[in-house]
Write a structure and sequence with these properties.
Elements (H helix, E strand, L loop, with lengths): L5 E5 L8 H16 L3 E4 L5 H12 L4 E6 L3 H4 L6 E5 L2 H11 L2 E4 L4 H15 L7 E4 L6 H12 L5 H5 L3 E2 L2 H10 L7
Helix pairs in contact: 1-2, 1-8
Length: about 190
Amino acid sequence: MAKLRSIGVFCGSRLGARPSYEEAAEQIGRAIARAGCRLVYGGGDVGLMGVSASTAAAEGGSVLGIIPGFLIAREGQLDGVEMRIVESMSVRKQQLIGESDAYVIMPGGTGTLEEVFDVISRQQLGLHNKPIVFLDVDGFWQPLIQLIQHTVTEAFSPQSIADHLVLEADPQSAIDYLVSKMPEADS
């Protein structure tokens, strides 16, 4: 098996309405660090993304933050982790996707949804075969799953897109899933 080196974490730049979201962000950061993987994220020091990255760093894990320069005043940046300052949101997303071997998708807002649909669309188009898992904290992703299934039912999306949606309620189970799905290394 190929070794899982970097996990992209897509999540909110806010903490959200439930304490369980922040707890899950801490747990995912800890699980990624303990798995020996680098956490790749949007670079800010706010919300769930700041919690997951700072927890991974505190656990001795490697962290890569990618942030557009204009967002630093708004979202800050973590000290003591590798930071890459880029020109735009598009470049950030492109590099987040490129630097990650797999993706864990936590609760978040419109920015997270944009990242979700980008990685799912790229996978559907055959542009990557990287594993994706949704951390379904308190059923957060259920409405999205229903919407995607609706697009399948109405013949706008193939069934395969719904078949590839994996939800895990437990952060450690999400990381275990990603580790188990790494493709065989080329010989």
